[in-house]
Amino acid sequence: MEVRQLVCHHCNVPGRIRRHGQARSGIQRYLCVLCKKTFQVSYIYQGHETNIAKQIKSLLAEGQSREQISRSLGVSLKNIDRHIYMLESEAI
Ligand SMILES: [Zn+2]
């Protein structure tokens, strides 16, 4: 089963991610079909990235565009998209 919403943490390509069992902690692991590397979604929310995800969420709620958010947070558009994908997959 492909997990369409996710973006690979290694090559940043969306839509080529499959579920790949669970880590000992019970966290879902994912495998990128393209680069064959695995990752865990929760990595993205560790450290200061948690704040960035929150900021993106609140700025989106204010109606700002991805470009505006990218400029105001100093985060690349690619990373903004990655966070948005994560926020959307979390909301399901
Ligand atoms: Zn990849």
UniProtKB/TrEMBL annotation:
Gene3D superfamilies: Homeodomain-like (1.10.10.60). InterPro entries: IS1_transposase_InsA. It comes from the Bacteria. One of its GO terms (biological process) is DNA transposition. This is IS1 family transposase.
